[in-house]
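Escalation from tier 1.

The customer reports that the assembly of two entities below gives different structure tokens on two consecutive runs. Tier 1 could not reproduce it. I'm attaching the input and our single run for tier 2 to review.
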Amino acid sequence: MPDVKKLMYVNRRAPYGTIYAWESLEVVLVGAAFDQDVSLAFLDDGVYQLTRGQSTEGIGMKNFSAIYSALGDYEVTRIYVEKESLEERGLTLDDLQHLTWEDEDEDWAEKESIRLVDRAELADVMSNQDVMFNF
Amino acid sequence: MSIEVNGKSLEVDEEGYLANLSDWEPGVADVMSKDDDLELTNDHWEIINFLREYYEEYQIAPAVRVLTKAVGKKLGKDKGNSKYLYELFPYGPGKQACRYAGLPKPTGCV
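Tier 1 run:
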């Protein structure tokens, strides 16, 4: 096995208005081809990227929120959401899309992708990464 | 650039992908495959339709290994392997089949 690096993509901004969220998602999907250990983190306004029922009709941008549910197919199975960021915005896990991945080794059993972590836990996970990409 | 499909001129990009997703009709795949000297069979259509459904749900043209896995799950292991898919689409199942299906070039195709 060649060196597998632990890569984390950190998303801190609202989905639209800037290109960061979309760019991050594209890099994740392209990078997923390289068999690295990939995880995503959503904190601050970044938690809005995962909300249900997004509509972009008024702003003339592509609504790319459906793509998050394809992440499991790309073997991105760990999506960390910071608890404090949700709470500060009056959101709960129920406001977010239900993201899952299917475990081929267990007859495609459906598993949860989103992991709710508090700030201290997320800091721990972050400190274990080899590379962080900030968007 | 453009292609002629059933008397209509449809815009394509420099790599031959449809510029507007909504322009697609089955005739698009017929015209494109004829240009590649490929005759479409039901097996080809199965994959093309699969891709269109995948895009409808996820708004993304899957990378080839994602396609392979998804096909294996939906249509069976005997079809969910790159040998089968490359035999159907020798120019690369991701790229060629997505083009016939009117989707953009797959995201994550390296």
